[in-house]
TrEMBL record:
Residues involved in substrate binding: 70-72, 101, 132, 165, 229, 291
Cellular localisation: Cytoplasm
Protein's job: Catalyzes the hydrolytic cleavage of a subset of L-isoaspartyl (L-beta-aspartyl) dipeptides. Used to degrade proteins damaged by L-isoaspartyl residues formation.
Organism field: Halomonas campaniensis
Name recorded for this polypeptide: Isoaspartyl dipeptidase
């Protein structure tokens, strides 16, 4: 069956005007301006008229805790797994799963199983081997083997630096881990990215700079997240991006975290652009189903709330509506840039040959009317 989406006001992410999109199986077979003849007609073609509604790429989220997170306050503070129903309604069509603080009761095997459960529901799901701690937990006995032989594993993470919950890795340990992930990624045709949880210790992103200064590993092998968690960390992140690295901003937050000094993700995007950071060096992630914990000055647990996958689309809207960032530029932060950083060439764009992952936006307000993933409509509002 072929599907023809007529009269889409297309942002690919660049604005393309009114277009028709032909979907064949899982991919986009053609993109044709609306004033040209339809690419194909006939009884084998399902035709859907979008009547000029905006169509954007499906969102790409580099950090989702498929199997839940938390537990820093005891077993009663564990957060739940991600539900398929929540995922398909969120607008995120490509999700990368990670373990976090807890790699004892949650495992790479459980993470992989959950990834395949969500994939059976129509989404594209990938994952990182390892967790906050070093040496990393793996399925096959090594990071390199996990990346090379398990299709879903595209890198290692969420490795913790500058955080009291991490293993306080040395420069040598970080360099060895990055080298293993990089080489295995090259052999497997993957990014081999090292996805890095960054805490609020004064060292900030300096451990990653030290690796780049003392080895042949480039800053771009790392993708540090939570860079908007404090003002000082954000300022260091701006410097890091100017030095050739990438930074990831967390969209899930709480009133308490904002009161403690976290910068809201949309505001952080606006500040980064104002500071003339190359937009391609900035990504957004939801940290969905992780705990968003608070600790006092002595490092004692105060409380937590779970991250939400829906926050990624919400922050995309805030970038556009509250900060005046053009939609095509904001889309990059929530989709295209992450696809590039993670080595996913068929994601984050709506063009011939790319995966048919797309969102149909509502005519009024900031809302999703339809979610399409790999050529299938998974969600329709109402």
């Amino acid at each position: 069956m072929l599907t023809l989406l007529k009269n889409a006001r297309l942002f690919a992410p660049e604005p393309q005007g009114l277009c028709h999109l032909l979907i064949a199986d899982r991919r986009i077979a053609a993109v044709v301006p609306a004033d040209e003849p339809l690419p194909v007609t006939g009884p084998a073609v399902e035709v859907i008229d979008l009547a000029g509604r905006r169509v954007i790429p499906g969102l790409v989220d580099p950090l989702v805790h498929f199997t839940g997170g938390g537990g820093e306050g005891g077993f009663g503070t564990r957060t739940p797994e991600l539900a398929l129903e929540e995922a398909v309604a969120s607008g995120v069509t490509t999700l990368v799963g990670a373990l976090g603080t807890d790699a004892l009761t949650r495992t790479p095997a459980g993470l992989l199983g959950k990834a395949r459960e969500l994939a059976a529901g129509g989404l594209t799901t990938l994952a990182y081997t390892g967790s906050y701690q070093l040496p990393p937990v793996t399925l096959t006995g090594s990071v390199g083997n996990d990346i090379l032989f398990i299709p879903e594993f595209i890198g290692v993470g969420e490795v913790a630096i500058s955080d009291h919950r991490g293993s306080q890795p040395s420069t040598h340990e970080l360099a060895r881990l990055a080298a293993e992930a990089r080489t295995a990624g090259m052999l497997a045709g993957k990014a081999g990215i090292v996805f890095v949880h960054t805490g609020d210790a004064p060292s900030h992103l300096e451990p990653l700079r030290e690796v780049a200064r003392t080895t042949a590993i480039p800053l771009s092998q790392f993708l540090p997240t939570h860079v908007n968690r404090t003002q000082a960390l954000f300022e260091d992140g701006v410097r890091f991006a100017r030095e050739g690295g990438r930074i990831d901003l967390t969209t899930s937050t709480t009133a308490a975290l904002l009161a403690d000094g976290e910068i809201a993700a949309a505001e952080a995007v606006a500040r980064a652009l104002h500071a003339r950071v190359d937009p391609w060096r900035v990504t957004l992630s939801s940290d969905a189903n992780a705990s968003l914990p608070r600790f006092d000055a002595g490092g004692r647990f105060v409380g937590l709330e779970p991250g939400r996958l829906s926050s990624l689309f919400a922050v995309l809207g805030q970038c556009v509506n509250d900060h005046g960032i053009p939609l095509e530029r904001a889309i990059g932060m929530a989709s295209t840039h992450a696809a590039d950083a993670l080595g996913l060439p068929h994601k984050g764009r709506l063009a011939t040959g790319h995966d048919a992952d797309l969102l149909v936006l509502a005519d009024e307000g900031w809302a999703i009317d339809e979610v399409w993933a790999l050529g299938r409509r998974l969600h329709r509002r109402g």
